[in-house]
DNA sequence: ATGTTTCCACCTAGGTGAAAACTT
DNA sequence: AAGTTTTCACCTAGGTGGAAACAT
């Protein structure tokens, strides 16, 4: 039989906007968290390959603590320093991609954008936003789960992907002004803060 | 066994904004169709009861020709008149509610809004919008389909609902100025055309 | 004539970082 | 002093009917 069903370990995800993520990561990515919920910028934008076109999948985004530390911005040095152990982690909420469940063909047809995921520091949030601790480091993680078997994350068929350049520190206000500038330059919603001559449209 | 699964004929749909629809219907509802696609106003907003909370359903909206006639607005009389037979009907497109498929519990929890359905007169539309003939009368129809059996509309379990007050004539520009006024009064996106003193906010 | 298309000012809806106000 | 919350001007994105231009 020439056409063989893809195995779970044939699934390949590519971070489509990796260059932008690396620009941020080289400086030290920060993500604003607010009580009312804030989107992430950059967003996690992925391309998928190797899915079974006819099978059904669920895509999840998770933000896991990257380490056991609490950080502080050291303005004089222009760097982050560890100031102690992390706050106890909360039960992690996951963001289910709104197209879920959808066929492998659907997921492979176009880039997969986690545009609308929101992060918050409100421990009592009722919207289902992902709750983070300010001044803690997080690592986004993507799960691809064959749907319809009811096992979800515990399924042995689930695949997990990590892109190290998407790591970030959650903040309630930007600490490193270079990060603020990069955001202004690239996030269309911050266009109003651009100075003439660095308009990336 | 005291808890019995609901039968298909136990499903009940209520048109939540029936009063608004009736205000339009008493004048003669018109819906603008454009090449680029136009939303309907009012929207079909429904409440569902009697679904099996654990079962999965798909909700569809369909716009079927209400009769075999083509119409013309008679400005002097302020009424519509039949001017001949309808154009041949096109293969009807349906709008799948974006929450589909979802559990009965989900559909019953909150009003079901067909807010985003778009209608067009572009016969070559590639967006999947519902294609209509201008100056023809249409009747919205809702289908509730138990999901997961692969039969969809041909399934004997599918339920169909019609609310006669949602009937309308498709136009490329409003014919009856009373309809235009009602739209301006009630559609928030047309607020810019409101004269002071009839702001329904 | 009659019906369609394009364009537009005016909205709704909501995502930005900065600055000010607030908290501890 | 350090971090958080609120507010705000400025955007993106896109849904309105009307008027003018266009088509037939």
Keywords:
homodimer, 201 residues, mainly beta, 8-stranded mixed beta sheet, 3-stranded antiparallel beta sheet, 3 helices, 14 strands, globular, disordered N terminus, DNA-binding
Question: In a few lines, what is going on in this structure?
Answer:
Helices cover 13% and strands 35% of the residues of chain A. Chain A has 201 residues and is mostly beta strands.
Note down, in words, how this protein is organized:
- Two copies of one chain form a homodimer.
- By secondary structure, the first copy, chain A, is mainly beta.
- Helices cover 13% and strands 35% of the residues of chain A.
- The first copy, chain A, has three helices and 14 strands.
- Chain A has helices at 18-27, 104-109, 177-186, and strands spanning 12-15, 30-32, 38-39, 45-49, 56-74, 79-85, 94-96, 102-103, 112-113, 118-120, 130-131, 136-146, 159-162, 168-171.
- In chain A, strands 2, 5, 6, 7, 8, 12, 13 and 14 form an eight-stranded mixed sheet that branches. In chain A, strands 1-4-9 form a three-stranded antiparallel sheet. In chain A, strands 3-10-11 form a three-stranded mixed sheet, with no helix packed on it.
- The radius of gyration of chain A is 18 Å and the shape is globular.
- Chain A starts with 11 loop residues before the first strand and ends in a 15-residue tail after the last helix.
- The relative contact order of chain A is 0.25.
- Residues 1-5 of chain A have low confidence and may be disordered.
- The chains hardly touch.
- Chain A binds a DNA duplex (24 and 24 nucleotides) through strand 3 and helix 3.
């Amino acid at each position: 039989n020439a056409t063989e069903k893809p195995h779970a370990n044939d699934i390949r995800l590519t971070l489509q906007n990796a260059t932008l993520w690396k620009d941020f990561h080289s400086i030290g990515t920060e993500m604003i968290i607010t009580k009312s919920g804030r989107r992430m910028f950059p967003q996690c934008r992925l391309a998928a390959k190797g899915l079974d076109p006819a099978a059904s999948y669920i895509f999840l985004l998770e933000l896991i603590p990257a380490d056991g530390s609490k950080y502080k911005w050291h303005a004089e040095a222009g760097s982050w320093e560890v100031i102690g152990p992390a706050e106890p982690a909360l039960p992690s909420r996951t963001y289910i991609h709104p197209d879920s469940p959808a066929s492998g063909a659907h997921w492979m047809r176009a880039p997969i954008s986690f545009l609308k995921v929101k992060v918050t520091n409100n421990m009592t949030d009722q919207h289902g936003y992902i709750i983070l601790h300010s001044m803690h480091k997080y690592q986004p993680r993507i799960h691809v789960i064959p749907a319809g078997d009811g096992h979800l994350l515990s399924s042995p068929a689930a695949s997990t992907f990590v892109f190290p350049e998407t790591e970030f520190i959650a903040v309630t206000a930007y600490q490193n002004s270079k990060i603020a500038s990069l955001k202004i330059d690239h996030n269309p919603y911050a266009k109003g803060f651009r100075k003439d001559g660095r308009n990336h449209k």
